[in-house]
């Protein structure tokens, strides 16, 4: 059957009411713009004929009840359905503390936004005729209460049963953690692996078995489209960090069964206190990049001596901003060959070295 619909993605809102915002001198996030940036996005999206909006996690600064309540109320005022999943910042603790809600409280705040069963943090919902959305929870906790990015066994069994019962419907999956690598060796890199779902390979195998091809993620704060064996992981950058992006997408299944996804990305250009948000935010990120770059250069696989890392790091000031932009090409011909080749891998290039600008604006053939 022919299926055509339009939807938007806004990710990692990190909503913080002004009196709840807590500061840290090295944070990359401009939480100060969370609400005005979101309002700017909503002003645009409400002018479009959208079928629904997806928000793949990190809805709040750090799970504060006030911020969850504010967002739930704001979403209830929109003229289109909204679906959310929890990010690590939304449920940072298993049991409530003086700052954050309990993990089990999350569905109660968002019962209008996917959660019909308030006893679980995941759902399967028919969002349009012939279209089904599965919202997954990628937040688990170890015996010490430490948060890890993983689908627990109970949820995995539930997902297997749900997928097995679906026939002749398009299935979309939304989850906070990445399931396909967006950075070089992301699953094993000591700085990047925390953005990957721990049991991503098992999830990909299950999705592939049931013909699921589209997964929407957040968490990494970059614009990137990655594909592994026919499954696309489309991750969207954060609304509170450069380049403050969001996406409008159109899905089309034509009369011969081909499936297309048109992706158009937008940016918040200004908010009242940051009239040139793009420039000031890129500057903000660059000003805080030095410790991050030193770690990147001195950790595996480069393992550079500290003195050499300190020499190279200033030239990489805009490294992360370029990655967050999407479609970046990174080349530092003056760098040692090994370092140059490694940094190049972070750009939007194929394994043969050709640029592939699909991260922001593209038309993807999903299936046939």
- Round the mean pLDDT to the nearest integer and report it: 95
Give the DSSP E fraction (strand runs of 2 or more residues).
15-25%
**Approximately how much helix is present in the residues?**
25-40%
**Oligomeric state of the chains?**
single chain
Q: Give the full name of the CATH homologous superfamily of the largest domain.
A: Metallo-dependent phosphatases
Main sheet specs: 6 strands, mixed
Shape call: globular
Number of helices: 10
Q: In order across it, which strands form the biggest sheet?
A: 3-2-1-12-13-14
Secondary-structure class: alpha/beta
Q: What labels describe this entry?
A:
10 helices; 2 domains; alpha/beta; 25% helix; six-stranded mixed beta sheet; Purple Acid Phosphatase, chain A, domain 2; 368 residues
Write a structural description.
The chain is of the alpha/beta class. Strands 3-2-1-12-13-14 form a six-stranded mixed sheet, with no helix packed on it. Strands 4-5-8-9-11-10 form a six-stranded mixed sheet.
Describe this structure in a few short sentences.
This protein is α/β, with parallel strands linked by helices and 368 residues long.
Which helices and strands occur, and which strands form pairs?
Blueprint: E1 3-9, H1 34-45, E2 52-55, H2 65-75, E3 82-84, H3 106-109, E4 123-128, E5 131-135, E6 139-141, E7 147-149, H4 153-165, E8 170-174, H5 200-209, E9 214-217, E10 224-228, E11 231-235, E12 245-253, E13 259-267, H6 277-287, H7 290-298, H8 306-312, H9 319-325, H10 337-344, E14 362-367
Parallel strand pairs: 1-2, 2-3, 5-8, 8-9, 9-11
Antiparallel strand pairs: 1-12, 4-5, 6-7, 10-11, 12-13, 13-14
């Amino acid at each position: 059957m022919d299926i055509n619909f339009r939807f938007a993605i806004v990710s990692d809102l990190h909503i913080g009411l002004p009196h709840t915002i807590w500061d840290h001198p090295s944070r990359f996030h401009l939480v100060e713009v969370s609400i005005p940036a979101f309002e700017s996005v909503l002003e645009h999206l409400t002018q479009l004929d959208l079928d629904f909006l997806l928000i793949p996690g990190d809805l709040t600064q750090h799970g504060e009840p006030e911020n969850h309540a504010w967002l739930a109320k704001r979403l209830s005022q929109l003229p289109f359905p909204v679906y959310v999943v929890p990010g690590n910042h939304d449920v940072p603790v298993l049991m409530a503390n003086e700052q954050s809600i309990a993990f089990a409280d999350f569905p109660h705040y968002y019962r209008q936004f996917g959660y019909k069963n308030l006893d679980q943090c995941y759902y399967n919902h028919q969002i349009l005729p012939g279209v089904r959305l599965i919202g997954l929870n990628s937040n688990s906790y170890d015996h010490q209460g430490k948060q890890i990015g993983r689908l627990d066994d109970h949820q995995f069994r539930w997902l297997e049963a749900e997928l097995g019962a679906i026939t002749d419907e398009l299935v979309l999956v939304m989850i906070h953690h990445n399931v396909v690598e967006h950075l070089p060796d992301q699953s094993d890199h000591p700085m990047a692996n925390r953005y990957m779902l721990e049991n991503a390979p098992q999830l990909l195998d299950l999705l592939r078995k049931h013909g699921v091809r589209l997964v929407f993620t957040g968490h990494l704060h970059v614009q990137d489209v990655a594909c592994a064996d026919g499954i696309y992981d489309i991750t969207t950058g954060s609304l509170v960090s450069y380049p403050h992006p969001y996406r409008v997408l159109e899905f089309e299944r034509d009369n011969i069964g081909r499936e297309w996804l048109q992706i158009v990305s937008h940016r918040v250009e200004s908010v009242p206190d940051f009239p040139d948000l793009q420039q000031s935010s890129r500057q903000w990120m660059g000003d805080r990049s030095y410790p991050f770059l030193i770690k990147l250069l001195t950790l595996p696989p480069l393992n550079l001596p500290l003195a050499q890392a300190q020499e190279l790091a200033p030239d990489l000031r805009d490294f992360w901003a370029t990655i967050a932009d999407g479609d970046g090409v990174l080349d530092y011909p003056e760098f040692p060959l090994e370092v140059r080749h490694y940094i190049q891998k972070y750009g939007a290039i194929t394994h043969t070295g050709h640029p592939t600008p699909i991260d922001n604006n593209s038309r993807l053939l999903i299936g046939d």
